[in-house]
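This protein record is not my work; I was only asked to verify it. Where you disagree with what is written, explain briefly why. This is what I was given:
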Amino acid sequence: MDRYDIAIIGTGAAGLSAGINAKIRNKNLIIFGNKELSSKLSKAPKINNYLGFYDLTGNELKTNFQNHIEAMGISITEEKVNNIYAMGDYFALMVNEKMYEAKSIILATGVEYTKPIPGEERLLGKGVGYCATCDAPLYKGKIVSIVGYNKEAEEEANYVSELAAKVYYIPMYKGEYDIKEGIEILNKKPLEIVGDKKVEKIIFDQGELITDGVFVLKDSISPSQLVPGLDVSESHIVVNRLMQTNIDGCFAAGDCVGKPYQYIKAAGEGQVAALSAVAYLDSKK
């Protein structure tokens, strides 16, 4: 398996800025995110506080970002990182049924993530998981509940149904559901995931459900859930001026480290994070 020098999670201003600065310094990098880049940026009617780019619409600035990374030969990997584990001299990034390795990571995830269900964080790894295709074999012949926040969750539910004795699908969105026969759809709101040493049941606004495991499948998760042991305060990653977190080799930049939520601030922090990651890698030689 190839081990990247730097893995960057996020394709907003911070992540892209980190990417181009890592590329300039000849580091082997991978960026996880959306090839469409920031959805928030495209909605901005005018941007006048980004030095050198006066009176641009969000879409125009987004196009400049896209042109810049393409000119530098930087590609975006459209895969969702479910968990990142510090393994000593490298990080393991879990992406569905496979894993990537990187010597350092830069978190540029923004602040858009769904508030956890009560009990979700406490029971993480004790019956609660974020990757159904990764952990489904653990639930062979058991009862599994999947809380899905997007259409992609339907595919994972279908996969799990091939192994589990019973699958309940709990959609957190409206629409048609492409679900295999035998999967029971519950249009109820989960209020709490309950259990002592492991998951036992889900409490709904109407009734409850006995279950052996719960997969919560959403677009993005909080930084503390993404990287176990990461120091977070008031939903923001704690960093110093070098964008270093409390985990050696892990850096963060952009909205996920705090206000103000501004593109130019995020881009500057992305550069600092990349330079700090490069210095960290050089110190390990």
